[in-house]
Structure formats: structure tokens, C-alpha cells
Amino acid sequence: MAQVQSEPGTGTRDALRPGASRLLSSEPLVPRKRPTQQRSQLRFDAMLAAARDLLIEVGFESLTCEHIAQRADVPIGTLYQYFANKYVVVCELDRQDATGVQSELATFAAEVPSLDWPRLLEKFIDHLAQLWHDDPSRRAVWLAVQSTPATRATATVHERALAALVARIIAPLTPERSRRALMSELLVHTAYSLLSFSVQEGQNHTDTVAELKLMLGRYMMLEDPENSR
After folding, report:
1. What is the DSSP string of the chain?
2. Distance CA 68, CA 156 (A)
3. Please, which pLDDT band fits residue 98 given cuts at 50, 70 and 90?
4. Contact 83, 91 (CB under 8 A)
5. What is the pLDDT of residues 3-56, one digit of tens each?
């Protein structure tokens, strides 16, 4: 099996290799192409599922495209048709996670009137907390995308898409659009950061989630028009 450093962009020694400079840029990382047929979609999904499992088992530093291809039972050339390196793989996993959360948030927002934000906030944090508690790959993916400027930039794109939904929900609290956008991004990033903290070894998940609700609830309360009367 190839050594970890043989994969483009997998370590500090690769900083000078062709293409590695892209990891130092703020340009989002995306797959080279996306599947268009059912068979290719199944392979694409299998590679992502294999990467999730391996992130938990060996960690991001030891993860290689060779490992992923072997676990997914696909030729390494097939993997490289879609993903330039493991950084693109984890960014795609992060996109999957964010897309799922966006879908859930849209459902919650449809259930609760915008002005009833405390109930929505608590309910949604409970939902996120359960996801992070039950699926350790979420924390593994979130940590992996903090590894380079390009992966962080990609994760920011995903978080901002989620924050845009949050902004629409809290619009009645904050008429000023620029402040609303900033608040939404802070809410999303704070929630992700503390949920990652809550599931690391030695931390009390339940207590941390309770503190997260308190923190974000009081932050939002400052903007509630009802409290300024």
C-alpha cells in the first residue's frame, strides 16, 4: 500500500507539490464531477460512506485515498475521477451533513411561526445534539475540514447556506439585514463548535447542550422586540 505522503496534499511535506497550493487558497473544494447514472451514484456514495467509517477508525491524518478506495471496493482511478484528494472527500462529506441540516431546519421553520423563536431554537438544538451524539462521524468531518484554508473556506460556504435559512427565521427580530446575516452565521458556527466540544471524550454532552441553549437563547433575547418594551 502506498504511504500516506504519496497522496497529493496529505501532509506538510506536500506543501510544495503541484496542486498542493490550492489547499492554501480560499477557493472552495468540490468534486471533479458528480455522478449522472445510478451505477456511478452508488459508487460515489460507497466512497463517501467508506471515508466516514475510516475517519472514525483511523482519523484524518492517517486517512488516504487508497484506504477509501479499498474500503469502498472501487479502483483508485475511479476515486480520482471524482475526488482530487482526501480534502475534497471530507468537504463533500461536510456538504452532505450541512444539506441534511438545511432540510431539517426548513421543516422546523415551517412548523413554528417565526416569532415563536425560543421554541424553534430549543427544538432544533435538541435535534442537532442528537445527530452529533448518535453519529461520531459528524465531529470527525467537522474537525477534518478545519485542516487547511481551502477546507475551512468550503465549510464556511456550507455554514453560510445554513445561516441564510436561519436569517429568514429570525428576520422579525432583526430588521437590519447586515446584522441579521452576522447573527445567523454566529449562531450556526457557535452551535457547531460547541456540539463538537460536547461529544469529545471527557465532556458531559447533556450539560453542554443545556449551556448552548442558554447561551444562544440569551443572545437572541437581546434582539427580541418584546424585551425592549
Report:
1. ---GGGSTTSSGGGGGSTTGGGGGSSSPP--S----SHHHHHHHHHHHHHHHHHHHHH-TTT--HHHHHHHHT--HHHHHHH-SSHHHHHHHHHHHHHHHHHHHHHHHHHHS-GGGHHHHHHHHHHHHHHHHHH-THHHHHHHHTTSSHHHHHHHHHHHHHHHHHHHHHTTTT---HHHHHHHHHHHHHHHHHHHHHHTSTT--HHHHHHHHHHHHHHHHHTT-GGGG-
2. 25
3. very high
4. no
5. 333 344 443 333 334 456 667 777 889 999 999 999 999 999 999 999 999 999
3-class secondary structure per residue, 14-44: HHHCCCHHHHHCCCCCCCCCCCCCHHHHHHH
Residue with cell 456514495: 45
Query: 96-116: string of b/e by CB count within 10 Å (b at 16+)?
Result: ebbeebbeebeebbeebeeee
C-alpha–C-alpha distance, residues 179 and 181, integer Å: 5
> Which amino acid is it at 48?
L
pTM over 0.85: no
Nearest to 188 by CA among 211, 154, 210, 156: 156
Give me the residue label for grid cell 442537532: 128
Q: In this predicted model, which residue has the larger pLDDT, 132 or 9?
A: 132
Kindly report, residue by residue over 43-68, the tens digit of the pLDDT. 999 999 999 999 999 999 999 999 99
